[in-house]
């Protein structure tokens, strides 16, 4: 069967939620792929005033995408820049922090538990044997202490994941992206890309790859990876004389800040399984059409998958698919009960965030 199944798995894992500012729906589908390597995080209350939505498209395995879904938003929330009101810097540092956390024995163990069944069993046994106390597995996220024992010299995973994250606080939208998952804003029916697909043939990416000692062959980094930025993929990050931002492949994200207005209707965060089949404008048009008759946002995501799914294995429409659709509530809309409770009740202090870069969508 290779990397494809004999028939696609079209079961969809879907969810809907809301707070007083927005409502969202999401769905994911394995499709023709032999395994599901996507992961996501949808948190309407990262704190009392902030929402967080992330899509993580894994490659070479599912461990890194699941690691990001478990830990990336925690790092954002607990970072010093976030506590000071600087969301952009907190996102940038947290993306790079993922690579640091996945090294060493604890990183190996966490990835093993999140990975495939054989790796999971091995990782759980290793964790119980070598962890100081097994009930501390998720404690001290910021400290992430080095642990002695097997795999202490683990340099990190060779599988990897994209990460496309949208953070919303008041009228401010901050998008952080590494890889080819994409965030698109619908403003008065027009699609505005708020992220860039980090492909190796982009001039800035190509320049960094070549300077770091890599090469591009048939559109792939070192003839292997079709992404220029990703979390994980540590085989491309071994130059000890270069900072993380200048490695052949980097987790350093592009961060864009946008002021939302009354013309903004909805936001889409989705993996390339969608964008391989539809342009940003085609997807925005399709969603507008579906919203005329469908109120449940997760159902709209599911219809997108059905529209994109290839009839036979091979080519476009055969990838895993994950999509989050966020619809902004208008100020005149009445408040509704919250269906998803916040994961943290902490609230960052009100500070001047005028230093954050503001970029109008193009």
TrEMBL record:
Annotated ranges, domain PPM-type phosphatase: 23-328
Family, as annotated: Belongs to the PP2C family.
EC class: hydrolase
EC number: 3.1.3.16
Ranges in a coiled coil: none
Biased composition (Basic and acidic residues): 350-362
Residue spans of biased composition, Polar residues class: 332-349
Keyword terms of this UniProt record: Hydrolase, Magnesium, Manganese, Metal-binding, Protein phosphatase
Region of interest: Disordered: 332-362
Protein's name in the database: protein-serine/threonine phosphatase
InterPro entries xrefs: PP2C, PP2C_BS, PPM-type-like_dom_sf, PPM-type_phosphatase-like_dom
Required co-factors: Mn(2+); Mg(2+)
Top-level division of the source organism's lineage: Eukaryota
GO molecular function: metal ion binding; protein serine/threonine phosphatase activity
